[in-house]
Specification:
about 450 residues; ligase; ATP binding; single chain; Creatine Kinase, Chain A, domain 2; glutamine synthetase activity; six-stranded mixed sheet; alpha+beta; Gln_synth/guanido_kin_cat_dom; Ubiquitin-like (UB roll)
């Protein structure tokens, strides 16, 4: 760590860095930033930077407001969009109380705690997110809703299109920040894009997702368009998900891989999936945390609505992708409910905790879904034992309130704050009279 600190201090001097932004997130997953002068960095390393935690949503109770931000030198990167005018760098921070204890409501710490539990069992948790988002002409919208930048579709090549330049610039910027990109392409909706980040340990991935969202927003502004990670900005077009591929490693060995097993999936892999399925309804208020998230989950277009798994079945909640021969390291499972607006620290904590619970308790994996689950009738789905994911944020809150797994994983303070925040959002949403109601009812009733 001292070598990393020395590298950071040396780089700041050599590159003429004028500002260093210290980044962290609140419980909802909003990125927070405080800029310090280069001369303050060494002090921040040694003592942390003090601030009033009660001003950040869910971070502390008001009577224990003082907290310290400790920059993590391994996350130091120069921000490429700042250019050569006042070069600026950033580091992610861990938040502690003045006596040096991790702040219980720091989302990054929640994930670190959960990863430590996995490490106690000998596991490292790797994730690979496929992040979808929309590019719009502006953040303003008219009578017909937001206006996408193009009318292209899945994998379309649009000569001279905004999305080409946008993706190229975004990918280059991400690579400059040390974030490896695996794929980028146009998605199914007009103006919808997907950029897939390369596999990394879950803490690095969560940091990368926070950086990714910032890069995408910055590049959009630079190119005169607007990027949104809203789960379902247009009712007639697909929502934006963040399908996440996951695997557990024991040392260098993929714990999900077993040569000769069905789909080359080990017992640990099967139990992990069983844990995800059993606890999926309880974690949905975090993986899909907004009222709008449920418009995506229940709006068709390949979003999962029912709790089941399948081999290469895109209608299932958990998918076991096609196995690549002689590539045991690539054995993985994909969770398809999570959307691009989730707080990655909390969502990945709960997905890991659910899978570990399946392993610890030896959950049995139910039979796989071989049919297109959306095309089955309710009766057929019931007969096959496919329960549904929560149909609304209110429904998801009810599952979460009863969940020991979520309470234990998030810790009392984060658990209570998420519930408080989400109940308020549901109340605000429920109290509105929408254009739909006025259209349907005003003249008729």
């Amino acid at each position: 760590m001292d070598k990393q600190r020395d590298f950071v201090l040396r780089t700041i001097e050599e590159r003429g860095i004028k500002f260093v932004r210290l980044w962290f997130t609140d419980v909802v997953g909003t990125l927070k930033s405080v800029a310090i002068a280069p001369a303050e960095v060494e002090g921040a390393f040694n003592e942390g930077l003090g601030f009033d935690g009660s001003a950040i949503e869910g971070l502390t109770r008001s009577f224990e407001a003082d907290v310290l931000a400790h920059p993590d030198p391994t996350t130091f990167q120069i921000l490429p969009w700042r250019g050569e005018v006042d070069p600026t760098a950033r580091m992610f921070c861990d938040i502690t109380t003045p006596d040096g204890q991790p702040a219980v409501a720091d989302p990054r710490n929640v994930l670190k705690r959960t990863l430590a539990k996995a490490a106690d069992r000998g596991f490292t948790f790797y994730t690979h997110p496929e992040v979808e988002f929309y590019l719009l002409k502006s953040s303003k919208y008219g009578k017909n809703g937001p206006i996408p930048v193009d009318s292209a579709g899945y994998f379309d090549n649009v000569p001279g299109g905004t999305a080409h330049d946008f993706r190229r610039r975004s990918v280059r910027m991400l690579e400059d920040l040390g974030i490896s990109v695996e794929f980028s392409h146009h998605e199914a909706g007009p103006g919808q894009n997907e950029i897939d980040l390369r596999y990394a340990d879950a803490l690095t991935t969560a940091d990368n997702i926070m950086t990714f969202r910032t890069v995408v927003k910055e590049v959009a502004i630079e190119q005169g368009v607007y990027a949104t990670f809203m789960p379902k900005p247009m009712s007639e077009h697909p929502g934006s998900g963040m399908h996440t591929h996951m695997s557990l490693f024991e040392g260098d060995a993929n714990a999900f891989y077993e040569a000769g097993a069905k789909y080359q999936l080990s017992k640990i892999g099967r139990q992990f999936i069983a844990g995800l399925l059993k606890h999926a309804p309880e974690i949905t208020a975090v993986t899909n945390q907004f009222v709008n998230s449920y418009k995506r989950l229940w709006g068709g277009d390949e979003a999962p609505s029912f709790v089941c798994w399948g081999h290469n079945n895109r209608s299932a909640l958990v998918r076991v992708p096609l196995y690549k021969p002689n590539k045991g390291q690539s054995a993985r499972v994909e969770y398809r409910a999570i959307d691009s607006a989730a707080n990655p620290y909390l969502a990945y904590s709960l997905m890991l905790a659910a899978g570990l619970k399946g392993i610890d308790e030896g959950y049995e994996l139910p039979p796989e879904a071989e049919d297109n689950v959306w095309s089955l009738s309710d009766t057929e789905r019931r007969a096959l034992g496919y329960t549904q994911l929560p149909a609304s944020l209110d429904h998801a809150i009810q599952f979460m309130e009863e969940s020991e797994l979520v309470a234990e994983t998030l810790g009392e303070q984060v658990f209570n704050y998420v519930l408080l925040n989400k109940r308020q959002e549901w109340r605000d949403y429920r109290s509105q009279v929408t254009p739909f109601e006025l259209q349907k009812n005003l003249e008729m009733l």
